[in-house]
Write a structure and sequence with these properties.
Helix content is 41%, strand content 17%. It is an alpha+beta fold and 295 residues long. The longest helix is centred in the first third of the chain and has 22 residues. The relative contact order is 0.15. Bound molecules: iron/sulfur cluster. The site of iron/sulfur cluster has 13 residues, from helix 2, helix 10 and helix 11.
């Protein structure tokens, strides 16, 4: 009777993580906004691996996949799904909408997606559409990715007013500034200690949002941080910053040049971001063995 229940589940999660990586579940042939302030050498490795230019041995993959981390990621996905439901109830979220029966996708041909269709799919399906995040790709920088949500600000306010909530002065000020109609939303679930200390969005997250604003051509973004322990929230407005984007864009164009200009078959790697192989990000990096082999 006294069998170890967690052990079997852990093995299941590790196997699932390995399979997902091997199947290329995350497209690494473009640059991800969420990775941009991290190690560009790692981005280069991922790119070469996804393109099939370099190999990776099974042990390097296994060593960085951990059951606890898989559970953390899954909790993060669940938080996103829950907030997606909240936003969907406002009727102000733009997205791509998939018919669960015939799988037709609506809104994917529009730059920012569209509001949820108010009529059933032409195939006759009676079920709700499935929401899919709006994706972007920019050829010049090779930046791409999907945003958690795009909200129509006017519709969101209409929904807010339907509860007869008092719109205070701060809201009025934001309304005046927000001349633009849409807002990118990015959700972050963070640990209680980080949450308590949080006074502004984290620097890497600001970069991520700026890249989303560049890709979507919008001016405003919002972060919602949710405490993993208490589910308390904090939200922050981010305004598009052209100066910051100019710097980040130059970095991306340079990295794209390095990775896509085959130097007589030599795969060039940018410098390491960290000074020690024991850095937290290096310990989780699948390319650690190759990266530090000469040091
Ligand atoms: S091991 Fe560390 S320095 Fe090397 S690519 Fe990975 S994250 Fe970057």
């Amino acid at each position: 009777v006294d069998i170890n229940l967690v052990d079997a589940v852990d093995r299941q999660l590790i196997l699932r993580g390995i399979t997902a990586f091997n199947n290329g579940d995350r497209d690494m042939t473009h640059f991800h906004a969420s990775q941009w302030d991290k190690c560009h050498r790692q981005i280069a490795y991922h790119y070469y691996y996804a393109k099939g230019y370099i190999d990776l041995d099974e042990s390097s993959i296994k060593n960085t996949i951990d059951a606890k981390l898989e559970r953390i990621f899954e909790n993060g996905h669940n938080v996103h799904a829950r907030w997606n439901r909240y936003f969907r109830n406002t009727n102000a979220i733009l997205g791509c909408w998939r018919c669960v029966q015939c799988k037709k996708l609506i809104g994917d041909d529009l730059a920012l997606g569209c509001l949820e269709p108010n009529k059933p799919c032409s195939c006759g399906c009676k079920e709700d559409y499935k929401y899919e995040e709006v994706g972007f790709f920019d050829e010049e920088t090779m930046w791409g990715g999907h945003v958690d949500a795009i909200l129509d600000i006017d519709l969101y306010r209409k929904y807010q007013k339907s509860f007869l909530l008092k719109i205070d002065d701060t809201d009025k000020e934001v309304e005046t500034q927000n001349a633009d109609k849409y807002l990118i939303v990015d959700l972050k679930s963070i640990n209680p200690m980080q949450f308590n200390k949080l006074e502004n969005p984290l620097p890497g997250h600001i970069t991520q949002m700026q890249i989303y604003l560049y890709l979507s051509n919008l001016k405003y973004g919002k972060f919602i941080y949710e405490d993993k322990g208490s589910q308390s929230t904090k939200e922050y407005l981010v305004v598009r910053d052209e100066h910051m984007l100019a710097v980040k864009k130059e970095e991306a164009i340079w990295l794209k040049f390095v990775l896509t200009n085959d130097d007589k078959g030599v795969r060039r790697l940018p410098n390491r971001k960290y000074n020690s192989r024991s850095h937290r990000d290096c310990l989780r990096c699948k390319f650690r063995g190759d990266c530090w082999k000469d040091r």
